[in-house]
Predict the 3D structure of the following.
Amino acid sequence: GPLSERPLMEVRLGELHSWISTRSFSAQGLLGAVQRAWGSYCAKYIHVKQGGRAGISMLLAGYCLLSYGWNYQHLKRHRWRKYH
Amino acid sequence: LRALPPPVAVGVLHTTRPLHTTQQSLAPVPPLPEKGGEVRHGLIPEEFFQFLYPKTGVTGPYMLGTGLLLYLLSKEIYVINHETAAAACILTVIVYGVKKFGADVAAFADKLNEEKVAAAQAVKDECVQMLQKAIEEEKKEQWRVEGRGFLFDAKRNNIAMLLEANYRERLLMVYNEVKKRLDYQVAMQNLKRQKEQDHMIQWVEKNVVQSITPQQQKESIAKCIMDLKALSKSAHAAV
């Protein structure tokens, strides 16, 4: 279909820039994008008859990475070597 | 459900969207998929491995992971501190727990779900059965309606019999009344004739007795005695 209506996974790398320019960055647009992303994640991994460990473990891993990123400036002080 | 068009205010019914033009309906809800998306090692979706397979083969993502890890460690973008040890211990315990008890917990949860679904299904089946029974009874009632004709014929027969019985009753009554009156007339005539007869006989007797004078009485008695003597003589002779 046309570029502005394709989901992110179907956009090729070369078209990424133009695709981002077609997205609306208003509050409603961002909120809609977040809602859609969460909805598709839930539909794929959580709202199934046999969920397994994939759904929640990916959420926890993402949380771990995010919190490492937020605390990086503090963790930088506990480095072992001065020069890398 | 979010894919459906938003509801229209039907209260005051000035809509800009036509109602009920599509085949969409909220029931039956499509069933949940059986299994979720494939994930390898519990963390990375299978689509990533398939994405890298054409260019790098099977070991591609693992080499990428190893290279990334070594880069993070050597540049100390990931710093090893006390939290690393804690994370390692916690992850070991979690992985061991999941491997050992995962299947049992999954079976238990599946059983709970199964019971809920079975209860709902039972309700639905019972509803369907009751509606089926209602349909059959309705059909039977419709069949019964065809018997109207017989019912009305029977009623008509009843009424005709009542009328006939009434008519005959009255006929009998008329006959009896007329007979009573005629009998009365006959009895009157008989009585009159009887009375006239008796009266006439009495009058004739009275006149006859009056007309018998004493002289005639003596003569008749003497004649009777002479007759008797003659008779006795003939009787003696016979003996």
